[in-house]
UniProtKB/TrEMBL annotation:
GO biological process, one term: acylglycerol catabolic process
Residue ranges of every copy of the AB hydrolase-1 domain listed in the record: 35-313
Pfam families, alphabetized: Abhydrolase_6
Taxonomy, superkingdom: Eukaryota
Cellular component terms per the entry's GO annotation: membrane
Gene3D superfamilies noted in UniProt: alpha/beta hydrolase
Organism (species): Agrocybe pediades
SUPFAM superfamilies, per database record: alpha/beta-Hydrolases
Protein name: AB hydrolase-1 domain-containing protein
GO MF annotation: an example: monoacylglycerol lipase activity
Length: 327
């Protein structure tokens, strides 16, 4: 792969075990309203703009890069993913907001990023002490915990079924992710190739209504035509530029023990609203998963949007407003 310098806004935190956590942030770093957003597969932490509603609320928006993606070190495999995640994010919050007694944390994620968001939402407070400061959670195109959602694979498309469904767990030695990575390396070996791949996978498949929503989104956010696709492509390229470790464990993480069961959380966890946003035409994270989550979280609020996997992106400002109104 050709060289790809890190963006000027990416920052790095040295963790207690010697690993590095990459992150970006935007907004007011002194604000007690802290938004933590987790990226999806072939993504990195990014914060190019802040939605107008979040600007009005004067939030501090932080987007960490998950372990084994981008410039974040792979995790210690001897530690369960949800425990490692809680430790990393605790250290990040300690670094950014030490001694803030008024902290209000809003967890959020898109696609695969909804897995770590849920892990922290449901984490026992002895594992994630800052869980007591979490006030709400936003899940966009979410995944359900596969070990608990027995029918999770019924509505998946074929690529997703193979890559993270039953075959990914039944075939040993990580053969499927290794074969997939070998194929993907030919598709995303440069930013230009990444852009072609992104357009074919996500943008070219939009229906007329979703394309109109996308156009409106670009206009409202002062994005030139092609700018969003290029940004996505750059993130895809950066996500595996240094290591594929994060990619190799995606299926294992979704299938793993998340540390809790959504329908068994205690009252202190359940007091915090969780807004679940599914898209009726999404074949990567099917709407059925969003509905399962809504049926199992006690304080869940389900919203269904027309469109595919990216549909929620074009409604983000309104979704943040809806989440805050639930409080």
């Amino acid at each position: 792969m050709s060289s790809n310098p890190n963006p000027l806004d990416e920052k790095y935190l040295e963790l207690s075990d010697g690993r590095t956590l990459a992150y970006v942030d935007i907004g007011d770093p002194s604000s007690s309203r802290l938004v933590i957003f987790f990226h999806g597969v072939f993504g990195v932490g990014t914060a190019p703009t802040l939605q107008p509603f979040l600007q009005e609320k004067n939030v501090h928006y932080v987007a960490p890069t998950l372990p084994g993606w981008g410039s974040s070190s792979p995790r210690n495999k001897d530690v369960p993913y949800h425990v490692n995640l809680a430790s990393d994010v605790t250290q990040l919050i300690n670094h950014l907001h030490p001694h803030d007694l008024n902290l209000k944390i809003y967890l959020a994620g898109g696609s695969y990023g909804t897995v770590p968001a849920q892990m922290l939402y449901g984490a026992p407070f002895d594992i994630f002490p800052y869980g007591r400061d979490v006030v709400a959670c936003l899940l966009l195109a979410p995944f359900s915990p596969f070990r608990l959602h027995k029918d999770y694979a019924k509505t998946m498309d074929t690529p997703s079924y193979i890559s993270v469904g039953p075959p990914s767990q039944s075939i040993p030695f990580k053969i499927i992710p290794r074969m997939t990575s070998a194929f993907m390396k030919t598709k995303i070996s440069s930013v230009e190739k990444c852009e072609v791949f992104i357009r074919q996978t996500l943008f070219d498949n939009m229906g007329p209504e979703e394309k109109e929503k996308f156009k409106k989104y670009r206009e409202e956010n002062n994005k030139q035509e092609g700018e969003v696709e290029r940004s996505f492509a750059e993130n895809v390229y950066r996500s595996v530029h240094e290591t594929w470790d994060g990619f190799f464990e995606v299926s294992d993480v979704i299938h793993s023990d998340w540390g809790f069961a959504p329908d068994a959380l205690d009252e202190e966890h359940n007091r915090r609203p969780i807004l679940i946003v599914g898209s009726v035409e999404d074949t990567m994270a099917p709407d059925a998963m969003a509905k399962w989550l809504a049926a199992n979280y006690k304080n869940a609020h389900l919203r269904s949007i027309n469109g595919g996997h990216l549909a929620a992106l074009f409604h983000l400002n309104d979704l943040w407003k809806q989440l805050f109104e639930l409080l």
